[in-house]
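FORM 7B: Structural annotation worksheet

SECTION A. Query
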Amino acid sequence: MNPEEGRAAPALPLALYDRALSLLHQSPDGLPPRRGHSLAERREPGDPQLPWDEARKAIRAALDPLPDDSATLHRRFARLGVRDRHRHLVHSTVAGLALPAGQWTAARSLGRALTRTGTTVSAVASGIALLVRLGEPEDIPYLSTLGLLREFTGPAVEALERLDRQAAGVVSLAARPHDELRPLVRALCARDQRAVQEELTAFPVSSGRVGAADARRVVEAVRLPRLLDRHPSDTALLARASRLLVWMGRSHDDPTDLLAYRDAPELYERVVTRAGLLPPSLDNHAALLSLALDLSSGTGVLLDWPPGRRTALLESLGRLLAEPRWASTADIAGGDADDGVRARWIRRTGRRPFALPATAGRLHVEMVAGDPAHSKQVEARILIDGRPIVPAVFTHGPVNSPDLLLEDGHLRAGPEPREVQLAEARCTEGCCGALYVTIRRDGDQVVWENWRRSMSGSRETPPEVLPHRFDAAAYDAEIARAETDRSWSWRARAVARLIKAGLIETPDLLSRWDASRGWISSGLEDPDVTVVTFWYVPGLASGTPDGADSPLQFRWDIPDDGTPPETQAAAALRRLADEDPRTYGRVCGGTRKRAQELGFPWPPQAVGGRRRQPPEPRPR
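SECTION B. Predicted structure
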């Protein structure tokens, strides 16, 4: 006997799909850990470290021509140095392959073989990428299992979205690090409909961790319109549906989540037409009013509505919330402070979404302050021909606040063209960009043109926006109206505006103290507090600043005392004139080292060496 024949055959690597099944069966509750299971990246001695450009070329070479079987692709990847760490390049390269219709059957078969029997991350990534384009219902179980591996969650969800949005939602939620949603995911995986209904209404909503993307995945995973139809008298379920719709439409999250949800108009229909079944309460009133704001001037306007249907639903909400039993929910005296803030918001905002002019001109600027329990932002929403322009072309953050667009006159059309920032990414422009437009006057017209979306390092192609022309007289009138509209505002916001105006008019009030104006607005934590910030640099007033590149930021909080805004602002300006604000403000930005050098205490809530502070200037 040949000695070689007597040796045991080397064990074949376990397919990653089988590994995923094994890990899933070993999980105590049938769910992956937070963020999903992870495969340790395999590195062999002498493993080539291909630069990204060379790796992309190697991947293209391995796929040209498309191999007939999975083993051939494994060998090509191994020979050319394509490894697990190249999975994202593999996915994007396969997504860009030219696949004539005559090759679809063979490519689909290869994708299935790779997802079922592939033993390397790069090979399985190729298979999933092929099924993103060519998958069929029989591929759903395999994609769902592979999606529970962290390396494949995003591509698997992308493939499942074409085939089964419920499965895509379950996989996406199972891989998210939200303990609040795990009981719901467990019920979904067990296909326990009673438990799904119970857990959907039970998970906490106050943590603020459930964003627009989570809300969409929940709605898709539970098939919410069908669930509502099966339980038409369940008011707790109806209330939760209204809140999920609100979360999906939140403009400070990604508006594409609402737009990507195909059944959004159907869900609006279910919620609004049954809203009268809800018990009148502050929470329910706030949720329905938030839906009305979205249907009147927010992302909800951009959905694919049947003619007249959105207007009819909005009018239905208007009639309901005007009923005495609903209007009285905002008549709160005393009680919880947060409830008082919310009640005052309802009283200020309650009729605004139902009062938009029926014959508005081409341009309308609508100031919208969101539910203070969930949003601390105020937007100057820009509607062109009745449609909000910002969420239609920029998905990374809401339109800027009235403080930025209107109080400084940025939207006015002057004699010279001017580029204006309309929106900035919620994570700052340096991260995910901003939206700009150039405004110029052309005779008896005003033109918005040269739309630009700054996007650091992004390969995304922004939507093309054509120039918009407005009648100059109507345009000027609308901007003037918006600039003087204070009906959306409240006392602390008005105090902030008046203090800012006073400091612009008399900058010496701060400069005498070696200080310069920072952002001034109502507080993000408490909207009934006016926040004044300023930057301190020793020697600034004398023209010999010491450490101008390392200023120290101070914050002065002014609680609303109930007197008129003019009285509060005048008192604040007098104090700035008479007393050094460093004696009653507190350090809130800069560096710990600079604070120690200048003899000021560093705030205990600071993290590391630099105080976390909202980017400048971002008043909301």
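SECTION C. Observations
The radius of gyration is 29 Å. Confidence is low (pLDDT under 50) at residues 1-11, 606-620.

SECTION D. Sign-off
Analyst initials: ____
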